[in-house]
Amino acid sequence: MRDMAKWATYKSTAWTTLLGGGIAVASWGLNATFRNVTVPQYNTDYVSFLVVGILVANFILPVGAGVSSRLNPYTLESILMTGPKLATLVVGTSLWPYMLSALFAIPQVLIGVYVFGAHLRVDPLSFAIASIIGILIVLALAIIATGIKIVTKQADPITWGVALAASILSGMTFPIQHLNDYIPGLSSVSWLLPQTWIFHIIRLATLTDASIFDPSTALAFLAASIYALVLLPLSYFVFSISLRRAKKEGSLGWF
């Protein structure tokens, strides 16, 4: 009863938790209705499409989870007293969780290919570049969320909203065109999310053998790169400002 009362005290956290659970159910519901259907956008089958989505979820997205879990605003003050550089702190604290997730992604892909018959057509150069772009985007978003949390000590509605929208609109488990079957034109909104571009360029590199030198592929990579180039300096700015504010207010070590 005490824990329930404490959780309910933070109204925004309570509502976002409830809504997040509902959106997750909706996401898998859309996934279920799309089974056994070909995916014309990438000229592949659904199993291959889903395997690559899982690859991104276990190879790219854990970068953000590592930053959010390791750059804990409640212990950040004692860590900063040891004098690490900001880049060392961000990269160093999230490197091992990411490496572990990347290692786990390997057997998952092998199972997808050799057990469930996923067909991958990989362009190594495109995949490497797409991975770097995706990692930079996810890293920047996580740093922004952590910077805001340093000040608020709670999840902020902006980054929560982006993450929530990405969970259903970015196309991890089903093609975004499938959204138009429910709300016409909804897939157009998906392209506003950076996560959608991550899934898109990774799938181009792993499902269609798309070369980075192909004009249509290069255009998609350019769009994703713009997100990375905008979000990276923005994340550094937000984190630095938040850190200075928390130090000035003396709230850096507050719970």
Strand and helix map with partners:
Elements: H1 2-9, H2 11-33, H3 46-59, H4 62-70, H5 76-80, H6 86-114, H7 124-152, H8 157-169, H9 186-190, H10 194-207, H11 215-249
Residue fraction in strands: under 5%
Mean pLDDT: 79
Number of domains: 1
- Note the main sheet: none
Query: Stretches where pLDDT falls below 50 for ≥5 residues?
Result: none
How would you classify the helix and strand content by structural class? mainly alpha
Tally of alpha and pi helices: 11
Strand-and-helix sequence, N→C? HHHHHHHHHHH
Count of distinct strands: 0
If you compute it from the alpha carbons, what radius of gyration comes out, rounded to the nearest whole angstrom? 19 Å
Beginning-to-end CA distance, first to last residue: 21 Å
Report helical residue fraction. Answer: over 70%
Shape: globular
Provide structural commentary.
- With 255 residues, this protein is mainly α.
- It has one domain.
- The protein is built from eleven helices and no strands.
- Helix 3 packs antiparallel against helix 6 and helix 4 runs antiparallel to helix 6.
- The protein is globular, with a radius of gyration of 19 Å.
How would you concisely characterize the structure shown here?
By secondary structure, the chain is mainly α.
